[in-house]
Amino acid sequence: SQTIHQWPATLVQPVGSPLSLECTVEGTSNPNLYWYRQAAGRGLQLLFYSVGIGQISSEVPQNLSASRPQDRQFILSSKKLLLSDSGFYLCAWSSTGIYGYTFGSGTRLTVV
Amino acid sequence: ILNVEQSPQSLHVQEGDSTNFTCSFPSSNFYALHWYRWETAKSPEALFVMTLNGDEKKKGRISATLNTKEGYSYLYIKGSQPEDSATYLCALGGGADGLTFGKGTHLIIQP
Fold first, then answer.
1. What is the pLDDT along chain A (112 residues), one digit of tens a residue?
2. DSSP state string for chain A
3. Contact B34 A34 (CB under 8 A)
4. What is the C-alpha to C-alpha distance for residues B76 and B92, in angstroms, rounded to an integer?
């Protein structure tokens, strides 16, 4: 069966520090991978998606970047965090992009 | 940019009562409508994926309807229980470029 792992669960980082959140999927190959964020008072917003290794599409220009070094690994990064980067980050995968999105358990990021 | 609206934003319901809430979306270029149930600190749980106008789906005490021509979907919960307390998200989905979510309806069931 397919599983998705996301870590860490919570993170408190100072402004200006770097960020690396990792997401891995098991039990499937060539998944579509997604990073979403929920900022305070807002809905889930798509940040990045990837349909293959090294292929990254950005939905919202921001202080973040994403990479897909391996088929089932998706990494969200920042060189210097801003206060506005605080939020709840969710990784998700889908085999077709149309049905059956499965989400990770999320990372609560607080930038102080 | 797709605009997915959910109402109400929050809802308090007495245990045992039935309730419903709404998801509105642009009716043009519709592909699929997803409902998720999201509890704090957990993964969003998929409830329904609906694609056809007039579609009705049911999962236990929860059901959903879809009207793609007028651009809305209703989620119904019959006989609310405390474990139904959660945020209910709807999202429009299409190709590989991900889902567009509404802000959710935060449901609190009061014993």
1. 889 999 999 999 999 999 999 999 999 989 999 999 998 888 889 999 999 999 999 887 678 999 999 999 999 999 999 999 999 999 999 987 667 789 999 999 999 9
2. --EEEEE-SEEEE-TT--EEEEEEEES-SS-EEEEEEE-TTS-EEEEEEEEETTEEEESS-SS-EEEEEETTEEEEEESS--GGG-EEEEEEEESSSSS--EE---EEEEE-
3. no
4. 18
Q: With an 8 Å Cβ cutoff, are B101 and A101 in contact?
A: no
The single-letter DSSP state of residue B82 is G
Contact present, B66 and B55 (Cβ < 8 Å): yes
Residues 6+ apart with CB under 8 A from B10: B105, B106, B107, B108
How much is the pLDDT for B1? Answer: 65
**CA dihedral (A46, A51, A56, A57) positive or negative:** negative
Give the closest of B42, B44, B96 to A32, CB-based: B96
